[in-house]
Amino acid sequence: MKNKKKLFVTLTILVVTVGSFVALSAIIKNPARIAARADQYYSEKSLDKARLEYMNVLKRDGKNPRAIRQLGLIWSEMGSPLQAGAFLRHSVETDPDDLVVRRELAKILVSTGQIPAAREQALTILRQDPADGEALLMLANTSGTPEQLAEVTPFTEAFDPASSVYYHLTAAILAGRQGDLPGALLSIEKAASINPLSAPVQLSLSAYYNIVKYPEKSMEALQKASDLSPGPTSARLLYAKALAGHGKSAEAIGIVREITESSRYFLPAWGLLAELTLQGKDPKGAMTMVNEILTRDSSNPEGHLLRAGILMADNKKSEAVQELEQLNRMYPGSSPVLLALAKSYLLTEDNTRAASTLDDLLARVPNHPEATVIKARLDLAKGGAASASVSLEKLLPQQKGPALKQTELLLAQSYRAQGRLDEAAAIFEKQIAAAPDQSAPHFMLGIIQKEQGKIPEAVASMEKSQKLVPGDLTITFQLIELDIARKDYPSAHQRAATQQKLHPDDWAPQYLEGRVYSAEEKWAEAEKA
Description:
With 529 residues, this protein is mostly helical. It has helices spanning 2-29, 31-43, 47-60, 65-78, 81-94, 99-111, 115-128, 133-141, 146-152, 165-177, 181-194, 199-211, 215-227, 234-245, 249-262, 267-279, 283-296, 301-313, 317-330, 335-347, 351-364, 369-381, 385-395, 401-417, 421-434, 439-451, 455-468, 473-485, 489-502, 508-519, 523-528. It is globular.
């Protein structure tokens, strides 16, 4: 009897256990229930958990549109553009009317340097929703040519100038693109009068003051933008980067650590922490930060890019190249990966593979800014000035700030190499008109005028450059050479004497004095100098 009772209890437990297992198995295998759990995690901002659950949905239903959409948004919020881009593109193709996804995709495209594609997304959004202010700003920011800028203006008509921050920030961008900096500031100030607590307004003020060389005001506005953007935001990371750039690395690290502690899923914060740690000459510590990224996602492309950068900084160049080549196989055609791979080839002096990789990138993303500039340098080095100038001319309209000056300088070099001296001179004349107190454009204009045989004009340009930087011996050398060319030896001696007073312990001014005596064929004085 006891054995029968024991058997009955055992069977009952087995039936209940099996029943529970079957019920649990049904729940696990049910994509709808997994998706509901993922949605709950997403609403609670438990992004790591939500991501894993949506991936579980895809394991059972590889084309589930909801899971694909949410994974794209999650990766974007976690700060992983390459991962996000793949899911968001697929989602846009599935549901072209989902403007939330299009907006995120546009941001991802900008962050990966795909400016024309981002601009197309912004246009599509505005055509469907003319009142989308973020899309309006995106359109303005991705417009460079006069034709593109003209296309922006009609979209501003949907916004009320009396109440719309977006209207005035867009007007500021358009004014800045046309070189009207006072007009840009006026528009930003109007936006600030509407909403002084807008982070985009403060970011715009920071950018303006940075352009006009007011670093203190730029930092002040950037700090306000950071304070107005609590949580894991790009504004806070920008402020941290700026602090580090001003030598306040400890304060910068403090801000980033605060983000990683409150929002551990935010991968760009770990990435910036790794960069700051590497700047402190601690590659081992930096690698620890990168591992925080890769433990969350072993195939995370940004994490592997950082890892390659740390290996390169630690002089483990072959390992870095291997890391990037493997990453390129994982994410074929990715712009950031191809760019990093090309740079690694350059650092290992493999210019042929670097050029080939850059060609691949530019075939996928025409006018990619950094890739275009690097490829132009390679072309110039091997005598391909004509092809360099063609690519730089196409890039120029979409450049701004320091990048614009860099592109203009390289374009001027390509013009010089082709003997197109008038076009090279025009570039520096434009720079002088925009910033007459900068020495370098006057100097470069003088060099070109010298090559053109315009000696008086070259002297005048060089003297303007020298006035801005009185102690620069390179400028003095060029002026003395010009004086010698026109046999104005008294002026040459005077310039050398001036530099001897400014640099009493330097041998270079003595050399310059000897150079003048040699030109006069006064050999005894030359030897004495």
